Amino acid sequence: MHPTLADVVRALEGLYPPSTAQSWDQVGLVSGDLTQPVERVLFAVDPTLAVIEEARALGADLVVTHHPLLLRGVHSVATSTAKGASVTALVVHDIALYVAHTNADVASPGVNDALAQACGLVDVEPLTVVEGQPLGRVGLLPEPVTLAEFTTALHAALPPSPGGMRVAGDAGATVRRVAVMGGAGDDLFDAVRAAGADVYVTADLRHHPVLEAREEARGGTPYLVDAGHWATESLWLEGAAQRLEDALAGTGEAHHKVETHISTLRTDPWDFVVGAEPPGGTS
Hints:
By secondary structure, this protein is an alpha/beta fold. The protein has ten helices and eleven strands. Strand 3 (about 60-65), helix 3 and strand 4 form a beta-alpha-beta unit.
């Protein structure tokens, strides 16, 4: 025997309470019958068609993703659209989908703790509070290092992605206090400055906010690192899978055991980079 989907959802909601998600977010169960048994669970960042096919090939009963499939309203689930094809594939193959998004960001441990750990931070605390929830993290490196040394070490700690990392700042500058926000985070620059961070690691940094932030800094701190959306959030998957196993085992029910897997797919949408300038380039 195996736990039902209702059992697994209960465990996931204990780890990542839906009430802690941001007001604009869409989290929780997207597809599936709460009475169906769950033997295998696949964890992934994105509920793409390829991930759903990976789950089908694996024989997974449930996919747990960080990003929502249906964040904004849709008016058709025809297979002529990617979302429609995804919903159809989930239903046809009896695969449930569960989303833990901003509620996984604010969890402790959660997405941002995983990123802080990859940065090697100690004395970690919340970066800011949004809608009553701690968002992002800020902490210290064990010893001061140059910005180039920090970003080189972080690049090695992150899963490889074709876009690599973009850095705004003097490669030789000394950094120690680091702020992090997995995924898109260029709306938290004020909090980063208030926290006294030397460098801010996040993703999806846009031209105008970054240009303004660097001008505000007059060439100094905080330096900015765009480490990639998928790369910064995929770090959460392994820990989340283990915590689900532990939560189910902790129920005391002998049959509450599942087999968890981490998606092998890189759902970063970029494929390659052409002509990136090395540090000190003039282009």
